[in-house]
Amino acid sequence: MNHETAQNSRKRLTADCSKCFGLCCTALNMIVSSDFPINKAAGTPCDHLQSNYACRIHRNLREKGFKGCTVYDCLGAGQFVSQITFKGQNWRDHPKLGTIMFQVFPVMEQIHEMIAYTVEALSYDLPHALTDKLSSQLKKLRDITKCEAEYLLSLDLVKLRAPLNELLTKISASVRANYIEKLPTPKSYEEYDHGGSDWIGKQLSGKDLRAFHFRGAYLIAADLRRADLRAVDFIGADLRDADLSGANLMTSMFLTQMQINSAKGNVKTILPFYIQRPLHWSH
After folding, report:
1. Among 198, 229, 230, 196, which Cα is nearest to 215's?
2. What InterPro entries does the entry give (predicted)?
3. CATH number of the structural domain spanning residue 235
């Protein structure tokens, strides 16, 4: 897979609610919080889900207290489960399928996330050995998505994710090391490693954070306005309410739409090629 094909594959991993049977509105639970104004059990349709599987208050979700709905993104797992796994059979017309469909959906979401990381990684300049291993992982994951629902539910997702995690760690180190070497005044490699750090609310406005390792870091409500975040590894980082206004994330690695949706930003925020600017961001 060449870089352009990998980029296009990554761009296509987006939700198309028109082809989904409201799975995120039904399969997942809601808990009263700053994200939701109601409690809703998993497997129970939201009161705002209409008969055509569209949301009755879609244009006013944030005003109605459903902030979590505007943050959520399934990377296309919803329409895949609806149209491919269950061949267009919906849970209203086929109630017996509902329970298993709602269980398969979060599994498929995790597989799509793994595919997203894999195709993104294939868009980078990497040693052939790593590219070959990534290509093998991608084929395996794509083959799994085509399996029957019962098989999908039998998967050990931790075991499935382990070899990919190892690959992504090596790829992050390789890409960031190459980037660091080209910086005019590089720091020692250890100074870039902040994986798992607690930087909640940290003031980082205007900082040069290029090639930092933020894997699994807590950046909740961090002030990252105008920060240079190119070549930063964000896999698993918590960006809830982090302010990315004017920040440069053009070549940031392993960001998801959900991470960006949970953060703050504006029209001056520079995003990676596969990320859409959230509609609720300021102008």
Report:
1. 196
2. 5peptide_repeat
3. 2.160.20.80
